[in-house]
Specification:
The complex is a heterodimer of chains A (278) and B (140).
Chain A lengths: L1 H13 L4 E7 L5 E6 L10 E2 L9 H11 L5 E5 L1 H12 L8 E5 L4 H7 L29 H8 L2 H13 L6 H5 L27 H9 L9 H5 L6 H16 L28
Chain B lengths: L9 E6 L3 H10 L8 E6 L7 H9 L4 E6 L10 H18 L7 E5 L5 H18 L9
Parallel strand pairs in B: 1-2, 1-3, 3-4
Classes of the chains: A alpha/beta (278), B alpha/beta (140).
Chain lengths: 278, 140
């Protein structure tokens, strides 16, 4: 922890970063996101890293900060999934790579197992960032058991299960609001032309499949959507499967560094997929 | 009361330059195909959004058929590559959530392929008849 705090102090003192988006231990014993700056350097003493108990979408907070101060460089605390998020945000034009400094951590094995954190494949971060200032590398989970279980069910069982899950949705938009990758100014989940609005539960399965389709090539598997959901819908399983499909169909790994882009953004990319026979 | 045979509702998104013209040719040639299909003309199959397909399914379509130009022949050069990327993904995600992906079909049909158009519609309607009504409850 001291190594990380020292690094943050260095970055702030030398002005390499105008601020640090991290966590701070509050008086109540909670760990909350905090924006550390040079004028209040003593706060860095209370900087915290609680990857298991306190997970917030720091890359989403960074977007808000960077939007207000586009010329400044900021440091951010990243787990593996946050770094995947940053890679994607660079590609989607939401953040500038040279204006972000990483302060990376490695997640504990229990968290990696709970998240079924995949990878690292090639250059895609797994349950640890590419720069590690805290923690020890642990073993990633190669295959998601939760996805495998659903894949093995018969078609109508799968339908019943997912239908029951989606029926509990109260349309709180928690999944969308907490998602670091959801930055659209106008969300199609609120657009009456795209989905049936003004119903609770929202149209089943249109609402969730629309979100799942939007998450293709975008979801970085941070798991916050599922944790936020008050109805315990296993959203992560759906989006994990989406990521797997994007990998199988297009060979694209969501969260990879900015030398490739999502196949759904590449207009005019000539693919060799073929139509299925009738 | 006699059991009426199930008549599926099929929505067809057909690109203006190829498939729709092919459908026109089938009509002019008096080729017969079942009337279950409801046609929506789009300028390019690449403009068919997953939202359109999901709306159709949510509104009670038993099947969705998408017709576009052959690969390499798109009127807008590369629109149909986007179509196949999207539709393949959509088919897989529908399958994962327990919805039979065979209810969503993509076919490349050119403007000269009138007989092929009629055959595809005939075969698809037959297939949807066999699969039965959609399991999705129709939204208001």
């Amino acid at each position: 922890m001291d190594r990380l705090k020292e690094k943050v102090r260095e970055l702030l003192k030398t002005g390499k970063a105008a601020g640090f988006v991290g966590y701070k231990m509050t008086e109540g014993g909670h760990v909350l996101p905090h924006f550390f700056t040079k004028d209040r350097l003593e706060e860095v003493d209370e900087a915290a890293v609680c990857p298991g108990d306190a997970r917030y979408p720091l890359d989403k907070l960074l977007q808000a900060v960077a939007a207000k101060y586009p010329e400044e460089t900021f440091a951010i605390l990243v787990r593996g999934c946050d770094e995947r998020g940053l890679n994607e945000l660079f590609k989607w034009g939401q953040l500038e790579p040279d204006k972000v400094v990483l302060v990376g951590i490695a997640c504990p094995q229990e968290l990696a197992d709970y998240c079924e954190c995949p990878g690292p494949y090639d250059k895609v971060p797994g349950p640890f960032a590419s720069v590690i200032d805290y923690g020890e590398k642990c073993a990633p989970v190669k295959k998601s058991e939760r996805v495998i279980r659903v894949d093995a069910l018969a078609e109508d069982e799968r339908f019943k299960e997912w239908h029951a899950h989606f029926d509990r949705c109260v349309k709180c938009y928690g999944c969308r609001d907490v998602c670091p990758m959801c930055f659209c100014k106008e969300c199609s989940l609120e657009h009456p032309e795209f989905i049936t609005t003004a119903t609770v539960p929202p149209s089943n399965p249109e609402f969730h499949l629309a979100r799942a389709t939007h998450m293709a090539g975008r979801c970085i598997d941070c798991g916050l959507c599922e944790e936020t959901c008050p109805a315990d819908i296993p959203l992560r399983v759906l989006y994990k499967k989406g990521n797997q499909m994007v990998k199988e169909l297009f060979g694209y790994e969501t969260g990879s560094p900015p030398d490739t882009k999502s196949p759904f953004t590449l207009l005019g990319e000539e693919v060799t997929l073929e139509t299925k026979p009738l | 009361m006699a059991d009426k045979e199930f008549e599926p509702k099929i929505i067809g998104f057909f690109c203006n330059w190829c498939t729709y013209a092919g459908a026109d040719l089938a009509g002019v040639s008096r080729l017969q195909y079942p009337p279950n299909i409801r046609v929506i003309r789009v300028m390019c199959s690449g403009t068919v959004s997953p939202h359109h397909v999901l709306r159709a399914l949510q509104k009670g379509a038993d099947g969705v058929l998408i017709g576009g130009c052959h690969i390499g022949d798109c009127h807008y050069l590369k629109g149909n590559y986007m179509t196949i990327k999207r539709i393949r993904f959509l088919q897989d995600i529908l399958k994962f959530t327990g919805f039979n992906p065979e209810r969503l079909h993509l076919e490349w049909i050119s403007a000269a392929e009138g007989p092929k158009f009629a055959q595809v519609v005939r075969d698809f309607t037959e297939k949807i008849k066999k699969l039965g009504p959609t399991p999705i409850k129709r939204a208001a």
